Amino acid sequence: MTNTPVTLEGFRGEFPRQPLNARRVAGALEAPGCQRRTALDAAGVNLDKLGSLISGEPRDRQSPFALTRGNQFEQQVVANGMAEIVALARRHLDLAIPEVRQHDLSAAAVREAYPGVTGARMNELRARLTRQRTEEMLTDPAQAYNLIRHAMTRLDFGGETVYLEQDVLAFAIDGRIHVVEIKSYPRIDGRADPTKASATVRQTAVYVLSLQQLVVEIGAPPEVVKTTTMIVLPENLSFRPTAVTIDIDMYVRRLARQLASVPRAADILDAIPAGTQLPAHPDNGADNDEVGAAATAAREALAVLPPRFTDGCVSCPLFHSCRDEAERHGSIARLGTAVAGACGDVTSIAAALDLADGRRAPASPSEAAVAAALARGAAAARIATGGLA
Amino acid sequence: MNALRTHQALQAAAERRAVTTTTRRHVHLSSSPLVVVGYHLAGDPGAPLALVWGTARDETPHCMVVPEPRNRALRFEALDEFAIDLLAYLSRFEVRDDGGTCVDAPQLVVPNAGTAEWLGGIVGRFTRNLRTDGDAPPPASVPLAGKHLSFFGDLLPGSSLMIAATDALTLHWQTGQLPSEDLNLAALLGWIDPPDGLDGPAAARLGEQAPPAGPDSDPNWDADVLADLIRSWHVAGDDPAAQAAVRGELEGEIREQLVPAWMDCWRALDQLVALPAGDHVAGRWLSDRKVWTAHSARMAEGRAFFRNIPTPVQAAGRLRFLESRTQNLQREMAWDDPLVMAALVASGEALAGRVVAVDADRQTFNANGRRQRRPMITLEPTLDFARPAGTNLYLSRHPSVKLEVLPNDASGLIRVEVLKGANQTKTLGLLPTAGDEIVLSPYGRPEFYQRSTVQEIPWTHLQLVEDSEES
Amino acid sequence: MHAEPVTPAEAAAATREQIWGTLTAGARSTLVDSPPGAGKSTLVREIGRRAHRRAQVPIVVQTNDQADDMIRGYVADQRRGAAPVRLGRLHAGDYLPPADIRTQQGLTFSKSLTDLHDCDVIVAPAAKWATVDFDHSWPFAIVDEAYQMRSDALLPIGAMMSSLLLVGDPGQLAPFTTADDTRFRGRPLSPLETAAATILTTQPETVRLALPVSWRLPSQAADLISDAFYEVPFTAGTQPHQRRLSRGIASLHRGRAADAVNTAARRGWAYVELDDVPMPPTDPDAVQAIVDVVEELISADIALEDEYGTRPLLPSDIAVGVTHRDQRDHVRTALQVARARTGMPVDEVVVDTANVLQGREFQIVVVWHPLSGRRDASQFHLDAGRLCVLLSRHRQACIVVSRGGIRDQLAGHSPTEPVWLGESAPTLDGWHAHLAVLDHLTDHAV
Questions:
Q1: pLDDT band with cut points at 50, 70 and 90 for residue B360
Q2: Rounded to a whole number, what is the distance in Å from the CA of B263 to chain A's nearest CA?
Q3: Can you give the residue range of the structural domain that contains A28?
Q4: A257 at the C interface (CB within 8 A)?
Q5: Region A322-345 average pLDDT
Q6: Out of the domains of life, which is the source (chain A) (predicted)?
Q7: A374 touches chain B (CB under 8 A)
Q8: What is the pTM assigned to this prediction?
Q9: Got the DSSP string for B283-316?
Q10: Domain residues for C270?
């Protein structure tokens, strides 16, 4: 580790990259205040690979059955010229849609029209085409395409431009753009899993915000992109689509404010000591020593980035290693947000128990308050169990 | 988080072992529970893949597998096996006492709330109304079992008819890990009952390595094992020998995945049975028996109906019932268990102390100027008590005795007066005597208000629904 | 709404006439959103007075205190010359009429409707209305605090009353349940929704109006509260110069409590920020800071000046608003100790949680910030309704006490709360409202 990172690219080094998409942007904002996660997100590090490497356990793949079912559902609802989607949009978004003129901006479709374009240039091309199509949608609604699939928009994340492949459909009717999201978790007797719905809504907000920024670039007001979005889900256990609309304005505004406070790359770099760099990922055939060495190097590189361990960390690919670290340090954060909150600025388990038992004198008002509260809890238990507890 | 629970969590982490948060057991345990674990196909809760069940820990559990979970006929064929066993198990609880109540009730034990939710809310919900007279009908046992599962899936707090092991364990123990990690039964048991030579965190790690307890299977196993087996099933075509071979292999794999969780359910029961039952557990089990009796009567008469979407009137009634059962459970646990009550003492809601004096003859004047008997108890609090004058408390030993905190007089002693329950000649005996160690809690006997019932849905709650695709 | 600019009083009167017009035109359901102190109770009483000429008018409130306050309001109206109304107060068996209204002329207390058949207006909490025989029926009734009322409590009302005026403050704390609510979420017409939301769902033709003027909040507060918490904007009913606090006694010592009181007197707001240290919920320094402010307020011999005249500030004009009951207990205890030490009647100020202060009004409110000293903001502590209640109880000034670090806490909060598709989506984001309020408070830091 001789070369000093001058950029986040330098910090990532040879470690595999995984560009940010809407899901990851939403995910990155789930761990605000965690310098470790923020730096890795900003550097576009492949978190699943990193997590597997340092914990020595493979990250769970997605089950092939879940994938198949999701794809089947999506294919079915977009089949027949979007007949099902159009019917749902007429009904739930109250849209008069005379006919569908759809346009596919997926990499595969664009590559056919523009052979030879690859990599970053492909992203730029798709983003440019998205902008053109959107402009046409707004200026010539009667003639232009009125439904775009797999659009590509840009979003500023900590000063870096992130390309977002839009999983959503964008409908343009009467100069207004409506976003439709298709998901494959079921809605049973009218109810959908609230945790999954929360993730959907936050992801959709990423798309809506980036589309709003696009229309502003074009010169239209952001309200042209409606925040009332339609989410299409399988009804009960069937493949029959059902739709529910939700106004996600609150989530879009929240996202805009959160993005504005994502640290700039330069600030993140300041916090990374010179010379810190992730190792290259060992090859498939690498022996245990090689993998072990890479894992150690990765852990050392991460060690300089302070994590913030909370209840929400279970969904992070680095969970296992951060958990071990919290446990090694005897940190109260290991016990979850509620316990940590009750312990004020005391962060060590041993210190908290010493304060509670009077083995340690409080050194601050916060410690004194924690000591009093914990001692009271312990005394109540002692009295209740006749001195046994 | 209250200070007692916080201290217990810190202790668990420091001792590297779960700490008991109760001195009593607050669930009823049946002498012959039916322990059930299962998987559905990933992303498709309506497609059961396997169930493993049994009523005796030392017997090999039954196992049903669906070699192609997306095939309706195969699904019914497999569910029939389980349904027949379930119906046979439930039929053991039909014997009534003289009052017409079943003398015992069944108890389903599952590893976690997710499995309970899946069995009742999905398997039960989508089989209970299947018609057995149409094309390719399911076996008659399947909708019957579906109705029973729907019943078990819709129980109230304090019921022990269905026990989710992780919920029951976290009611009685505090671990030193994140609350969401307690949802893993094997890891949770690692904290509570680590095998020899391991401490809690190490045992929990080991538990995490075990196959999941369901109802979601391990995605890696799906990709590496299950996908191949389902492919083999399709390759086997109509050849019975080849089919049997695939089934056999799948059952072997499933047993490897699910039997550890099934065994863990029994380990969880072992942990719980070691605690002495709280005094109110029997009363709650009696109401479980009554609920079971009513359900079983409805089943017998063909009147067991379940609504997929409750009406506003039903939902309101249900919510009120749920609220009162939730409160009752909290109250009864605190009355039964000094350590549960201690959490309230720690948070300052309850007052523990030694009785210094009792003035049973004290009289005051009420708002209408009439004399009334208001005995007064003076206590020396064991821990500071800061609730203001006017706060209502109840004797934890006799919750019918309602008290009010009087203004304090800087002596450090707390004075409370009796508002009701121990101010008449025949109830004065409920007063404590000087020297007693007592607890005054915020929990009185539940009060019942007579309410009229709304029969039909009024205009305020009638929604005009246009023909929807949901209908 | 589209008329030329008018005075606040004219605007408010026009809205009241509009509401009456809607009712007389036969609307089955009318919903009036009322910001804090916008004359909601006055409106309810006035409509009750006007409507009883056609038929007896039931008034549905949410608590016994609210019912008694409604009765007191009618009594006061009559004392000021309003047309007399025969009042009925329907109550539960164990209720004791308060001494101040027990013997009031023209007022009947009873636990049974049969005793109240000749009353013009009958006031009772929703829980009491749920116990009467549903064979009764009324053509029209008024529901007060429709945003505090749960949908299930509206069922019996709907069974007996054929048309409704619902009035409430949409910025308050929503009703809740102590039970696990997951079974009831994610469906329209959940029993946990507010009565107001239920009516909007089932009666799409509901006429929805908003009272435009807050007579309580001073002009320095109305704009902030309106922007941060309300969909329909409102204004203050008074001009800045009409409300004033003046100190009779200059502060003996320079300190933050004195600065806070002086700043609040000058600007209507003051923000006392303590060191940025995570603390347990019962932060002794925060308690002390609150006690200091209360002592300063009482020792300063403050004169209150408003549109009704000038008078001295009394301890009962002051409230301390907190989030948790144990915070309330610690503050009350500390104030009792302070009284014993100084002899000042500091323990006569009202100390309570947002839930209890909801619907009440004071001259000066000292707020213990819900996020003070926390490590992580939780949904409970971020609740927009809680913050709104705490910041909108005052007529003169509001002093907020908090640990520093709230901005970091908000920045570090991960808003991943569950979303129940199919429920009416929240329009107000507590996280955002907290940021807006913090931006404002920072300008008034002492």
A1: very high
A2: 24
A3: 8-60+262-356
A4: yes
A5: 93
A6: Bacteria
A7: yes
A8: 0.93
A9: HHHHHHHHHHHHHHHHHHTT-----SS--HHHHH
A10: 219-443
Read out DSSP for C358-423? Answer: TT--EEEEEEE-TTTT-SS--HHHH-HHHHHHHHTSEEEEEEEEEES-HHHHHHT--------TTS
Task: Yes or no: say if C186 and C422 are a contact pair by the CB < 8 Å rule.
Answer: yes
- Looking at the structure of chain C, the number of domains it has is 2
Residue B469 pLDDT more than 70?
no
Structure tokens at B266: 């029994």
Instruction: Tell whether A234 lies on the interface with B, counting CB pairs under 8 A.
Output: no
Query: Does residue A192 sit in the same domain as residue A341?
Result: no
Asked if the C-beta of B454 comes within 8 angstroms of chain C's C-beta atoms, the answer is yes
Residue B314 lies in a domain: no
Cβ proximity of A235 and A130 under 8 Å: no
Looking at C195, C213, C231, the residue that finishes a domain is: C213
Q: State whether B300 and B405 are in the same domain.
A: no
| CB A371 within 8 Å of CB A362 | yes
Put simply, the answer to whether B463 touches C202 (Cβ < 8 Å) is yes
- The total number of structural domains in chain B stands at 2
Taking a C-beta distance cutoff of 8 angstroms, is the pair C367, C400 a contact?
A: yes
Q: Answer whether residue A2 is part of any domain.
A: no
Q: Using CB atoms, which chains have 3+ pairs under 8 A with C? A: A, B
The distance of B386 to chain C (nearest Cα, Å) reads 6
- Residue A308 tokens, joined: 């913030």
Short-list C302, C369, C368, C292, CA closest to C337: C292
Verify whether the Cβ–Cβ distance C186 to A190 is below 8 Å. yes
Q: What ipTM was estimated for this complex?
A: 0.92
Same domain for A75 and A187, yes or no, is: yes
Distance CA C318, CA C281 (A): 23
- CB-based contact B125 A189, cutoff 8 Å: yes
- pLDDT tens for B176-215 read 999 999 999 999 999 999 999 999 999 999 999 999 999 9
Question: How close is the nearest chain A Cα to the Cα of C375, in Å?
Answer: 5
Residues B362 and B301 in one domain: no
Cβ–Cβ of A384/B222 closer than 8 Å?
Answer: no
Domain range holding B350? 339-441
With respect to residue C1, please indicate whether it lies within any of the assigned structural domains: no
Confirm whether A367 is domain-assigned.
no
pLDDT band at A3 (very low <50, low <70, confident <90, very high): very low
CB within 8 Å: B470 and A235: yes
**What are the tens digits of pLDDT across the range B15-51?**
999 999 999 999 999 999 999 999 999 999 999 999 9
Q: Is B296 in the same domain as B365?
A: no
Among A335, A343, A357, the residue to mutate for chain B (most B Cβ within 10 A): A335
Domain match, C284 and C167 both: no
Window 297-326 of B: residues touching C by CB (8 A cutoff) are: 309, 312-313, 315-316, 318-320, 322-323, 325-326
Nearest to A374 among B7, B341, B470 (CB): B7
